[in-house]
Amino acid sequence: MGMDKNFSPLDCEKKIFKKWETSGAFKAGSNAKKNAESFCIMIPPPNVTGSLHMGHAFNNTLQDILTRWHRMRGFDTLWQPGQDHAGIATQMVVERQLLEQGELSRSELGREAFLKKIWEWKDQSGDTIINQLKRLGASCDWERNRFTMDPGFHDAVLRVFIELYKKGYIYRGKRLVNWDPFLETAISDLEVEQIEKSGYLWRFRYTLENGITYQHPISFNEDNEPIEYETRDYLVVATTRPETMLGDTGVAVNPTDSRYESLIGQKVILPFANRSIPIVGDHYANPTKGTGAVKITPAHDFNDWEVGQRNGLRVINIFDSKARIQIKDNKLFLEDCQPDKFVFSLEKLDRYVARENIVAAAEKRGYLDGVDSEEHIVPHGDRSNVAIEPLLTNQWFVDTNKIVQPAIDAVRSGETKILPEQDAKVYFNWLENIEPWCISRQLWWGHQIPIWYDDEGNEYCAMSEEEAQKKANGRPLIRDPDVLDTWFSSGLWPIGTLGWPEQTSELKKYFPTSVLVT
Fold this sequence. Notes:
Layout: H1 9-23, E1 38-42, H2 54-72, E2 76-80, E3 82-83, H3 87-100, H4 106-109, H5 111-125, H6 128-136, E4 146-147, H7 151-166, E5 170-180, E6 185-187, E7 192-208, E8 214-220, E9 226-232, E10 234-239, E11 250-253, E12 267-270, E13 275-281, E14 293-296, H8 302-311, H9 331-334, H10 341-344, H11 351-365, E15 368-381, E16 389-398, H12 405-412, H13 423-432, E17 437-438, E18 440-441, E19 451-453, E20 459-461, H14 465-471, E21 478-479, E22 483-484, H15 486-490, H16 493-496, H17 505-510
Parallel strand pairs: 1-2, 3-4, 11-13
Antiparallel strand pairs: 5-6, 5-16, 7-10, 7-12, 7-15, 8-9, 11-14, 12-13, 16-17, 18-22, 19-20, 19-21
């Protein structure tokens, strides 16, 4: 019988891989010499929603070369495979599918029925990436394949949360987070893309309180010294985001800016809201940018939050979870404020519609001083492609400062090496300037936070509702609805896949692992 005219990789790949797999060539410890040194690589778990892209193919090929090389030399070798449940990505895929098939939406289904749909989807589509890796010839120990929502792994994740909670390293607090108004959840800095957009810089007039005036320079000589002034009873602030104006609680000027020196400590009246807000001296205000006077909205801007903290300014959130105006029953907004009728017409409007209405109303009433075109950076969610809203919400945080020292020491002492070596600089920069890590997500798919509350808001941290109930002496409890950030669980991948918290022989043998290719 003659040879096939064309080579068909499809047939050969499947056949060859089957041979490899059935022979047990890729099993942990296969071909190991007696008392061999161990060598272990953990696959950075790809998203269960995904299919391979070039990055996967490249880094998995490097892992495969290292694994096969050590296996052939008689090391006790393990290349550990698995997939990440990928909270946001998976929930989005399934929600989109329900929409396309005209089925009930997530909110109509309710939590339990929706999670059932995700598990169904996972059973049908969750192996795409595994099958692609097998076709590549990846020599993982496929019998040990793990998933971050496996029962054993799930317990390990909850146990770590409980341990850190008991030590006081995990806490619940109100902080500003990156909020995705489309997905209605907090997301991490790493899930935010900075996108340059053409926009505008609007200038608004905020009237000075109690009839105060000051001399504002309007013309200058060649040495840039003011030679002509005009008397003003208002301050001009510049902003790219008029829609946040209703949440302003201060105006910042630079203490070295001679134009506004005399105004620090005075107050202005916030247009439309008629709230009296202070003028503060803060180095965040740049005298050469805009008008040098900046509106400060601590609840809707990370820099403004810092200015607010330094100067004791109030924090007023004016958006709901979809980034629509929410002021009607908003106690913080209504306090010390006599809003115009116009303000209430903005209720439940999308932030960009509210922006148009505010600018139009400001122009009509003489509050608008002018508009300039401007290119500026707008942060967007990398999955939803929607502009991110800094939002003050109750979230769970890890006090990362308290736990990163061993990781810093490991690289400093040379116990762990980073290649290429110049990247150690980036590593130290990250860890030495680390912020608290927001680990809660307002999603349904993922590891639900193991905290229960009683009627008085007391917290009970436990592995199960039964255990929490015991701690609460049988009081009725409600579980925290949030789930943990996907990275909280994938951070435990090296130990969770080796059987931790049980002290297994694999854990003893293969941990710490030898190399991470990512």
